[in-house]
Amino acid sequence: MKRKIFSNFLIAIAIPLCILFFDLFPVSGQEIQLKVLTPNGNEKYVIGSMVEIQWTAKNYLGTIDILLKKNDFVIGEIANNINVSGGKFSWKAGMVKIGLAGPSDTYKILIRTSDDKYQDESNAPFAILATTLSAQNVVPINDPTRLAVTKPDAGTRWCLDSQNSIQWTGNLTAAASMKIELLPGSGSGAKVIAHSTPNSGNYQWKINLAQYNFNEGVFKIKISTTDGGLVSESAPFRIGRDLILLTPKFNQIWRKGGNYRIEWLNDCNIPSNAVKIELLDTDKNTVLPLAVGAGLNKSYNWTIPGNLAPGEYHIRVTTTDKQFFAENPITIEELVQAAPAPKPSITITQPNVGSQWCSGQKYQIQWGSTLPPDAKLKIELLSTKNAAKELLAGSVPNTGFYGFSIDPQQYPFNRRSFRLKLSTLDDAVFFETADFSIRKPLLIETPKNTDTWHKGRSYNISWTLGCNSTAQTVRLDLLDQYNHVILYIASDLPVNQAYNWRIPDDIIPGTYKIKISTPDNQLTCEEPFNIADAL
Questions:
Q1: What secondary structure letter does DSSP report for 285?
Q2: What Rg value do the Cα atoms of the chain yield, rounded?
Q3: Any idea which architecture 346-434 has in CATH?
Q4: Span 244-330 CATH architecture
Q5: 102 vs 184: which has the higher pLDDT
Q6: Edge to edge, what strands does the sheet with 95-96 contain?
Q7: Whole-angstrom Cα distance, residue 113 to residue 65?
Q8: Are the beta carbons of 202 and 144 closer than 8 angstroms?
Q9: E strand or H helix at 470, and its extent?
Q10: How far, in Å, are 267, 394, 445, 525 from residue 500 at the CA level?
Q11: Torsion over CA: 237, 241, 244, 249 (sign)
């Protein structure tokens, strides 16, 4: 009897404490915001003077760390695990835990949550000024050594046989020697551009056509000190030919009487404003001039003459002044009489029968179609329960795929069956999938909301964890109808198994919920059921 009274006392204490704990931290779905108020830019403080760092926080009541940045690099920690609700911290200007930062006008204050998930910093730099007072017994600190590649940047395209400027910044001495390398997108097979060049921040690189003989590639520039002590890499960029023939593709088959588009890429700074297009034989002799003085509009439509002999040819595009050119071999064959056009059709390949898609994740709806590429399609989600329709996309191109993000707020149920319908805008051509399901990543299989379990008896609580979750264990709790935890059942249970639970004899009959959750509480599921008196 004493043990039962003590157990009830612990439950009575635990429930308010749990409610208080969850009140202290952000509610799922609410956006956390931190904002530095002061210093926030353009202030001037004498080194060693007292400065009040101020901030505001929204939807967060935990702790924060305060750091000092110089030239946008963190140079030291001012304080950590500060209660965010205080909104301010008194700081001796320049002081960090490892020493004293010197005068500069490039400082910023950075505050961030202690779990490093959210942060904010001063909108603009502020200054710390020198003073003759030096009574503080501190060790001055130096800026960390920095190196950063600034050119080429993301989206840059450099051309073969052109000269380009590789640029970098940092605080290395002018006497430092730098090594510059070209890294392929695969990450292996680096080529040295310069073994040792002065730390001038700029290197003029002529991309040798003979050394880099390819059509188009993705690369990075790697710059390091010659001793390998400091390294920086650029964002990915492209290197390609001045003129690239996109179509016809290499050894593509074209047919007499057909109309084809010749396309080329000329993103480099070609001085010419016109090209000529020719059909060549296998010996590269001109068979037929297709266009002379065509504008650099990157495409030309050509109808293959019916009297042209079938065989092997080359299509060549050449600029009319500096003689940049690109060519590809093609095969021209006799015209094949087309079979009667098949009836247009659509076939959805994903999801297929039995597919299980999970809320909170994104999937690709995929299909095959004999409709024209420029056809417009609509996508609908059909509930197999009541045939209700939800329009996912009113008009999408016939690309063969469409991204579908399953919003947990819009699809909050445990598991439900659906069908997808893909059709032309007039519904003349359509396709419906077999049933597939949308479910929660973590799903309780038993009990179900229609089940009644009896006091004093044992039942299996079972669950499944899907959707590529990496969780290894789960926890089970019993909730009342107000979603309060009234009984801890078990924890550290393996995923995708079952737990045999004996219902306590002293529990009050009524409606309850089984709650299952992962240790990080990222995935949860609840299922109502009834508990009745013993049989």
A1: -
A2: 34
A3: Sandwich (2.60)
A4: Sandwich (2.60)
A5: 184
A6: 95-96, 99-101, 140-141
A7: 6
A8: no
A9: none
A10: 68, 49, 13, 18
A11: negative
Mean pLDDT, the chain, rounded, equals 83
Q: Which residues pair with 96 in a beta bridge?
A: 99
What residues have CB less than 8 Å from 66, skipping those under 6 apart? 53, 77, 78, 79, 80, 82, 89, 91, 109, 110, 111
Q: What is the DSSP letter of 160?
A: T
Amino acid at 170: G
In CATH terms, the superfamily for domain 147-240 is Immunoglobulins (2.60.40.10)
pTM of the shown model: 0.35
* Mean pLDDT across 403-416: 80
Which residue matches tokens 């590809």? Answer: 328
Q: pLDDT tens for residues 277-315?
A: 899 999 989 999 888 776 655 788 889 998 999 999 999
Contact residues for 482 (Cβ-Cβ < 8 A; gap 6+): none
What are the backbone angles phi and psi of residue 12, rounded to the nearest 5°? -65, -35
Distance of alpha carbon 444 from alpha carbon 517, whole angstroms: 10
Give the tokens for residue 354: 């039995």
CA distance linking residue 276 with residue 270, whole number of Å: 14
33-141 to CATH, choices 3.40.50.720, 3.40.50.10490, 1.20.120.1220, 2.60.40.10: 2.60.40.10
Rounded to 5 degrees, what are φ and ψ at 14?
-70, -40
| Cβ(430)–Cβ(379) below 8 Å | no
* Distance in angstroms (rounded) separating the CA atoms of residues 31 and 24: 15
Where exactly does CATH 2.60.40.10 map onto the chain?
A: 33-141, 147-240, 442-532
pLDDT at residue 317 in the model: 87
